[in-house]
Fold this sequence. Notes:
- This protein has about 170 residues and is of the alpha+beta class.
- It has a single domain (about 5-165), classed as CATH 3.40.630.30.
- The chain has five helices and six strands, in the order ββααβββαβαα.
- It has a six-stranded mixed sheet.
- It is globular.
Amino acid sequence: MVAHSEGILIRKAGAGDIPAVLSLVRVLADFERAPHAVTLTEASMRADLEAGHFEAWLATEDQGRVVGLVVCHRRYSTWKGLTAHLEDLVVLEDCRGHGLGRRLLEVAVSWAQSIGAQRLHWEVLDWNQPAIDFYEGLGAELNRDWIPCRLGELALANFPLRYPHYAS
């Protein structure tokens, strides 16, 4: 998908774009006060992209500077069926407020529609009021009743499996 306007090109990222993708992921991690949390390497991200584990689109200025990113992947809901997940939406600070975030969200919505997803899901930090306002202004439902849970890398690796035969 490619879209032009206001001097910004939005295009699907390929394997050669992984350094720019990971750079913007790190910008987001800094903003979210967790720069240490990004442990992914360019090589593993490239392999994951090539394996189809995620899709990404970059927003680039005419001069070639990458100023935005949206990353999506598929999930499955036993209540709704195929679900699209928006993993990251990043717009560099000096480019915010001009509609680029909406354009990147539209890419995610368009992709979700194209794969037949029943919904598009994402998370937003509870202290990121500008993003909350942005999403609610577009009609997103913020579900404050559900608490996201995860097992991190260490917890997952060290989880005591009682029935390891189910893991295969």
